[in-house]
Amino acid sequence: MPVPILLVTGFLGAGKTTVVNHLLAHADGRRIAAVVNDFGAINIDAELIAGASEGVVSLANGCICCSLEGDLLRTLSTLLRRDPKPEYIVIETSGVADPADIVRNLMDPVILREAPLETVLCVMDATAPPAALEDALHRSQLRVADIVALSKLDLADDGAGARMRDAIRAQRVPAVVVDANHGEIAAALLFPGNVDRAPPRDPGPRRPAEERFETLSWTSDKPVSLPRLQQAISRLAPKLARAKGLFETVEQPGRQMVFQFAAGRATLAPGDAPVTDVPRTRIVFIAELGVLSQAELDAIMETCVVGE
């Protein structure tokens, strides 16, 4: 029996992990394997996926549309050999991935026969300005989508959803556009009942890869001061496309916090119990090439550690 693949794409900070978490938390008995690709040496997204169970496979320190292409195909082959094998496979791409290249990889005849690509879901941040769709990567992510999910509608002003829908229609993409409040999407849209006849897809001509973003990481074995961290992020914010991480604070030792920065907004939320044998603070920063150096990042972030 073929195992259908759901490919989840979307720009940096769009809300892909929230969607995948909702799917896994509401699996309703389905055996779902999740493959998570984070653009960085520390795969924060894999730690944020529900439970980070053995069903979640992490692909880090590269992008599966290019440098990790072989790893993705090997991972899928391994998942298909599991007993029992999953009923569905969800692949969450990094925010810098061109999904057309991933679709092209998934058209491998062996993978297509055993794990057909059934649905491509593109998560779009409703708070982003419609002009964001003029970006080539945004357009590539929309172009291959079957479904576009508008996220963060609770954070958007009145009319933002309608404006984004109009902007998506202006791109002349055939995708269905749905709201995804807090990552919720009807499972019937994403998990089809009959997967026997998934046709091959045409991802279009291969385009030259464009190295546009780079990732930098900062870790510390010590907890950080929350006020100092907030000051550091404020200094770094103008140079950041995205940031995310896990940390403990001196104000609340032994409690892990989840940090997210996207579209100019920083959020904090309580996390699971701290993981042993890893640094207490693990934060990944994504910026345009050449905008932020590791030395500058280290100098700013070291001010967050009390006594440094």
Mean pLDDT: 82
Strand arrangement within the widest β-sheet reads: 3-2-4-1-5-6-7
- The total number of structural domains is 2
Give helix and strand order, one letter per element, not per position: EHEHEHEHHEHEHEHEHEEEEH
Biggest sheet features = 7 strands, parallel
What's the N-to-C terminus distance?
Answer: 58 Å
CATH superfamily of the largest domain: P-loop containing nucleotide triphosphate hydrolases
Broad structural category: alpha/beta
Topology-level CATH name of the largest domain: Rossmann fold
List the helices and strands and how they pair.
Elements lengths: L4 E6 L5 H10 L6 E6 L6 H5 L7 E4 L9 H12 L7 E5 L6 H8 L2 H6 L2 E9 L10 H8 L3 E5 L8 H11 L5 E4 L7 H4 L22 E8 L5 H11 L5 E7 L7 E7 L2 E6 L10 E8 L5 H8 L7
Parallel strand pairs: 1-4, 1-5, 2-3, 2-4, 5-6, 6-7
Antiparallel strand pairs: 8-12, 9-10, 9-12, 10-11
